[in-house]
Each structure stands twice: as C-alpha cells, then as structure tokens.
Design brief:
The protein has nine helices and nine strands. With 273 residues, the protein is an alpha/beta fold. The protein has a domain of 183 residues: 3-Layer(aba) Sandwich (Rossmann fold), CATH 3.40.50. It starts with 8 loop residues before the first helix and ends with a strand.
C-alpha cells in the first residue's frame, strides 16, 4: 500500500473508541454466522494498529488466526506488540503481519481465508486498489466486511452558514490526486459495492455514524481542524473565512456545545451459493 496517505498511530488511537461505537454490530454478527466450523482465518487489509481486530475478534468464534496487511511496517509492529483480544469464547487468537501494496493483492494471497475485513480505508484507495481487493475476495470466495467508509455527509449542530462551503471543499479534497494516486473519497464504498454486485455477490449495506460531541472533545477538535485544513488546502479562497470559523467552532467545542454526525456506510459481501 505504499503511497497511501500517512496516518499516525496517535490519530488511530484517538479515533478507535468512536470507530468501535460506530461500526455495524449487526453486519459483524451476520458475518460471524457465515463462518465455517473450526479454525478461521481473517485477513484485515489496511489494518493499521489493529483496531478492527480488537473490535471484531471478540464477536467471532475460534480458534482464530488474523493476518494483518498494511504498507506501514511501524503500525503493524504496534499491532503485533499490542494487547491482543480474545475470541468470543475468551480463547487467545493468533496474529501475523504482512507488509505490501494492496494494488498487488491476488486471490492466492487470500487462499484459505474465512473472512476479509477493511475499516476506514476505501476513501483513500485508488480504483486499481479497490478492484484488486474485490477481485481477490471474489477469487478466494471469501466473505468481506468493509466498515466505516465515509459518505461525504456531515451534519454540524448548531449550524453555521459557512458549513456548506467547507464541506464541499473537503469532499473535493478527498478526491484529489496525491503522489500519482487518485483517491476515491466518498465514492469508494459505492464502487466496491458495485464491483461485488457485478461479480454476482450478495451485498448488504448498513448506515453507520460517528457521533462526535462533548463526550470526546479532543477527537471532535482534531477532526474539525483537520477538516478545515484540508478544505483550505483544496480551496485557498476559504482562508479568509477560516480563522473566524475556527474560533467559533473551537469555543463551542470548549463549552460542549458542538456536535457532529459524520455518516459512513458498512458493507457485508458474500458469494452466492
């Protein structure tokens, strides 16, 4: 996955509790019901520090083996060295890592997989990478659970007349070309869903939402300011309004008055028998 946007372990740690609250438990349990009896193997693509594993492993039967794929060896090292979850029967799981580029993923790389997982990744992938992931899942006939793909829809409360302009610029920034890679942004999940459907697979979506408010003010603040930074980078004309906009929203965060609903979609895809 070389070339994908750098993501810090600190940001992943900050967002992990909200990710855990937002992911679709219904789809996770539906995926669990599809798994074969006996040992299962889960390939987690773009695993980062392993948050998907820590959330999902306790919902799945064992024995479990997880293979974590990421281009960032440092994040994989943190995942391997960190606290490992147990399966739903409280038994230990096995964890291995694999560093590589998802654009080169092949069905043989997923041979023997019981489930493929992805979390908060599709928006930063390219068309080639998304095609490779779907083709690999289809070729290996492995069900896939794709969680927390952004839709581009955000609702801030209280509203401000500047919200729409910054949202438009941020969504455009998500679609930018960076280092020769054209990101899919909010179209990542629909494209993946369409590719699975073209392959004749069942696809079940579920709307999932980040609910950011006074309960996690640091996450709300980091998310908001990162969003404004990206919007201004995309449209420098917003710079004149950014200072006042930041001041207003920062004061609201400090007083516990700002809330943000950030829409995502989760997908569960599985082959027709």
């Amino acid at each position: 996955m070389s070339g994908i946007l750098e993501v810090s372990g600190e940001w992943l740690a900050l967002r992990e509790p909200e990710d855990a609250d937002a992911r679709s438990r219904d789809l996770a349990l539906a995926a669990a019901a599809m798994l074969p009896k006996g040992p299962i193997v889960v390939h987690d693509l773009g695993s980062g520090t392993g948050s998907m594993m820590r959330w999902l492993a306790p919902l799945l039967p064992g024995p479990q083996t997880w293979i974590l794929h990421d281009w960032n060896a440092g994040l994989l090292e943190r995942a391997i060295d960190g606290v490992r979850p147990s399966d739903r029967d409280n038994a230990a799981i096995s964890v291995y890592s694999q560093t590589g580029n998802l654009a080169n993923l092949r069905p043989t790389d997923l041979a023997g997989s019981s489930l493929v997982t992805v979390s908060a990744l599709l928006d930063v992938l390219t068309s080639r990478e998304t095609h490779a992931i779907v083709n690999a899942c289809v070729g290996a006939r492995s069900p896939a659970l794709f969680a927390l793909s952004v839709t581009g829809d955000v609702r801030l409360s209280p509203r401000d007349e500047r919200d729409a302009a910054f949202e438009h610029a941020f969504n455009a920034h998500q679609l930018r070309e960076a280092d020769g890679r054209q990101h899919l942004g909010r179209y990542g999940a629909p494209i993946a869903r369409g590719l699975f459907a073209q392959a004749g697979w069942h696809v079940r979506p579920s709307t999932t939402v980040w609910r950011l408010d006074h309960r996690r003010p640091r996450l709300l603040s980091e998310w908001f300011h990162g969003r404004v930074d990206a919007a201004v980078e995309q449209d420098p004309g917003l710079r004149a309004n950014a200072t006042g906009y930041r001041q207003l929203r920062t004061s609201q965060i400090e007083r516990g008055e700002l809330a943000a609903h950030v829409s995502h979609v989760d997908l569960l895809a599985w082959p027709r028998r």
